[in-house]
Structure formats: C-alpha cells, structure tokens
Automatic annotation (TrEMBL):
Stored PANTHER family: D-INOSITOL 3-PHOSPHATE GLYCOSYLTRANSFERASE (PTHR12526:SF510), GLYCOSYLTRANSFERASE (PTHR12526)
Pfam families referenced in this protein's UniProt entry, alphabetically: Glyco_trans_1_4, Glyco_trans_4_4
Entry keyword set: Glycosyltransferase, Transferase
UniProt-recorded Gene Ontology molecular function terms: glycosyltransferase activity
Superkingdom of origin: Bacteria
Name recorded for this polypeptide: Glycosyltransferase subfamily 4-like N-terminal domain-containing protein
Glycosyltransferase subfamily 4-like N-terminal domain mapped to chain residues: 18-179
C-alpha cells in the first residue's frame, strides 16, 4: 500500500511523532509498504521545509511562511498537508489527532471532490476536549469553541479510528453513538517501541558504568524524561525524593510546566540534588535512561492521565528500568505490579516514596523488575507482532 501519515505538529520536542507515528510507519515500511509522514513544524521552525528518510520512511516537513496570526499559520500548513497528500496519491491517509493542523487538513480533504472518497483513518491519542487538555491549556475562547467542534466532527467523520488507550476507545464510541456495541471501526492500538531502540539500548547497556562515570553519577539516580505540562504531577516525586537524601534526580524535560516544577523543587529544598536537561536527541536520552538506577512517573487520577498511553513508560521499559509509576489508565496495561514495575495509588505521595525506597533497598529485586519490563515491552507491545492489525484496518478503511 501507499500510505500517508499526517502529523499534528513537529517531530520534536513533543513526542507524538517520534513515539507513536514513526514506530508505526517504520513497521509498515518493513512490511514493504510505501510510507510518507507529512509534518507541520509550527512548534519547531528550524525544521521548516526539511525532508529526510528514516528506516525506509520518507519524512517531509511543510514550509512556514510569513503569516502573522496563528490562524493563518494553521491554514497554510493544513493546505500544504492536504495538497501534498493528494499529490502522493495514497491508498490510505492516517490523520493523527482529531484537533489541530492535521485534523484541519482532513476537513479540507473531505471537501475536495477528488479526495472525498479517500480512505481517511483517524488516530486518537489524548483526551483533547472538555474535561481534558481543552480545560488545561489557556486557549482563547474562540479557539476552544473551534477545537470542540473539530474534535466532535473528526471523530464522527472518520471511517476508522485507532485509539491509544482503552479510555479513548470508550470515549470515541460515545462520540460516534456506538457505546456498548460492536467496534464499529474503533480499535485499540497502544504505543509500541521503534525496532531501532533495541540496538540503542544494547549499545548503552554495554558501557553503562562508563556512562555513569562520564555523567558524574556516584549516588543513586532517579530519572524522569519527557514533557512537563501545566498540570504536571511531579510534586509527588519531589516530596518522595526529599525523603531520600542520598538520591540525585535527573530531569530531562521541556514543556509549559517546567517553571512550575522548578518552583516545586525549590520549595522542597532539593534543588541542589536535581540535574536539569532540556530536549536531547533520543540516543543520548537512552544513554541516561540506561545509566540511571530507577525511573519514575507519578500521576493523579484525571481524565488526561486515564486516557494517555505514555511514551515515557515505553522508553523506561525498553531501557530495562525498574520503575515506580502510578496505577492509572494504560500504566496497568503495560506493567504488572511487582513483576515488571511498581504501581502506586494515584496521587499517593507516601506510597510513591515507599516504592522508590523499596527499589533502592533491594537492587536485586529492582534488576528483576527492569529485566521483566524490558522483555514485556517487546513481546507484548512490539510492532512486529501487532502491525497486521493496522494493515487490516487500512484495508477495511
């Protein structure tokens, strides 16, 4: 098949393209399909107009123009994505996220007689609307109204929809009026690791002690890697680490919540034990994940957290990390408590601290958890064993 993926935003620093779209795309390419990923890089202007090839997948970034308003930028990028998608004459187009630039390109494609009958598959990987990101992010009122309409329209207009989590499957069926009935074109398709990650992890593991020396890590290290949103829950981790005086906390993160997190850390009195990094290439991130002792990701029980399918947890598992995460949403699908990770009650600082201390006090147990997590992510969630479902969805679309 000739397949086009429409991305919602730039390749980085957000993780949807690298953690969700690209692993799907490369798995399809390994099966002999032609796959092109089209990206609107409004949040990373340095990528404007750039193209590259990754593991058999062609990646193309649209060009940013001189538009002055956000609306103008979005319209220009959506038009470019729709036009380029038509030029590629695909058998199927997979649009990622029911809001934003890619969803707007989907609307444009639906309006064109020449592309109205194209197979348009939609992917839903976050709780975008009311009760979710729409309430957290400070969008102007007009934009919020538009995004509400856009999400509702896209979830109803797509012929088939892939969802990253069980909660999103149920929510999508509610939008489509199929709650409690057969799938009706709505499929659960959680994230999985990119096959190239195996080699990156193996290389890092072979030099783990040298990496720790290079990084200057002599004490136990807990690591958090990923985006820090406005509504982050990392205060839970800060409270736990305050009670572990020998621990260093390495944070590799970008996002609107970084300033807030710095304030939390300062208030907890642990700033001198925190090592900060911004965005870094994935291979460098893998080295630090492998070199760290434990990985952490605390949640509270919210719609956003119940709906998400964390790329962080996937990377932690692939790197063989013993980890403490909250027992919310897809975390309990990816991890088995006390077998491949420690799951703590959401928002429970005391339990999170106790789980971290357990791993630090029992390195052999921690190593067993990390090894089991690494095996589980590849055997249960590797794309090699699941890509057939996506092919069937495309064929039926």
């Amino acid at each position: 098949m000739n397949i086009v993926h429409l991305a919602p935003f730039a390749f980085s620093p957000k993780a949807t393209v690298s953690a969700r779209i690209l692993p799907m795309a490369t798995a399809l390419a390994r099966r002999g399909h032609r796959v092109t990923v089209l990206i609107p890089p409004y949040d990373n202007p340095a990528d404007t107009g750039k193209t590259w090839e990754r593991e058999g997948v062609q990646v193309e970034n649209a060009r940013l123009g001189n538009e002055k308003s956000g609306v103008g930028v979005y319209l220009s990028l959506a038009n470019q994505l729709a036009r380029r998608a038509r030029q590629l004459q695909p058998d199927v187009i997979h649009i990622f996220k029911p809001v934003g630039v890619a969803a707007l390109a989907m609307w444009l494609l639906k309006r064109q007689p020449a592309t109205r009958d194209l197979k348009l598959i939609l992917d839903n990987d976050d709780w975008e609307g009311r009760g979710g990101w729409l309430d957290v992010n400070p969008y102007p009122p007009a934009q919020k109204l538009f995004m509400q309409w856009q999400e509702r329209w896209a979830l109803r207009a797509a012929s088939q929809i892939t969802c990253a989590s069980e909660v999103l499957v149920e929510r999508t069926r509610q939008f489509r009026g199929t709650r409690g009935r057969s799938a009706n074109g709505v499929y659960l398709l959680p994230n999985g690791p990119d096959e190239a990650l195996r080699a990156q992890v193996a290389q890092a593991q072979a030099k783990r002690e040298a990496l720790r020396t290079q990084f200057g890590w002599r004490q136990p290290v807990a690591i958090y890697a990923g985006t820090v949103p406005r509504n982050h829950d990392l205060d839970i981790a800060a409270c736990a680490i305050r009670r572990l005086p020998d621990m260093r906390w390495v944070i590799i993160a970008t996002g609107d919540g970084v300033t807030s997190l710095r304030q939390v850390i300062a208030s907890a009195g642990i700033a001198h034990r925190v090592e900060w990094h911004g965005f870094m290439p994935h291979a460098q991130l893998v080295e630090r994940l492998v070199a760290a002792d434990i990985a952490i990701y605390p949640y509270r029980d919210t719609n956003i957290n119940r709906a998400k399918c964390s790329g962080k947890v996937m990377d932690y598992m692939a790197c063989g990390k013993p980890m403490v995460v909250s027992d919310v949403g897809m975390n309990r699908v990816y991890l088995e408590h006390a077998r491949s990770g420690l799951l703590t009650p959401p928002g429970d600082t005391e339990a999170f601290y106790a789980a971290m201390k357990c791993l630090l006090d029992d390195p052999a147990f921690a190593d067993r958890l990390g090894g089991a997590a690494q095996q589980r992510i590849w055997t249960q969630f590797g794309w090699a064993g699941r890509i057939g479902l996506l092919e069937r969805i495309y064929a039926a679309g």
